[in-house]
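Before surveying the methods themselves, we first show a specimen of the format, giving the amino acid sequence and backbone structure tokens:

:::
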Amino acid sequence: MSQEAILTKKDGEVELSKPLEFMYSQLRNGRYRLKIERYVEQRTISQNALMWLWFTCIERETGTDKQDVHDHYCMAFLRRTALINGVEMTVCGSTSMLNTLQMTDFLEKVKADAAVELGITLPLPEDRYYAEFINEYKYRR
């Protein structure tokens, strides 16, 4: 059985999301490795919503189904090589497995590709006409 807690350091003070003593009490006898690594959140709901809003725009502007647009960009930007049963194969990652930093990188690549390859400007929430963009594409299927 493994234990996990979120450690937060702010202004020199460290807080744990649950007591260390409690986590110790849950362990069986044996040797354990304690490893501290930076915690990265999974992609956010707003990142996911932005992605699908963009793909709806691309669908409307190109006629390509938004699921196909999603799959195209996953193949373009989330492709990797894996060894499966001793055979090297190309596999495609999923946006659902990305953390917030990886999703930001993915969205930046999609935005750049849409601008260069499709001539489509995909706005970010902080952009001037983002509200109009939402009104144009959010409720259209």
In short: The chain has a mean pLDDT of 91. Helices lie at 20-25, 45-62, 66-77, 100-118, 130-137. The CA atoms of residues 68 and 129 lie 26 Å apart. The longest strand covers residues 79-84.
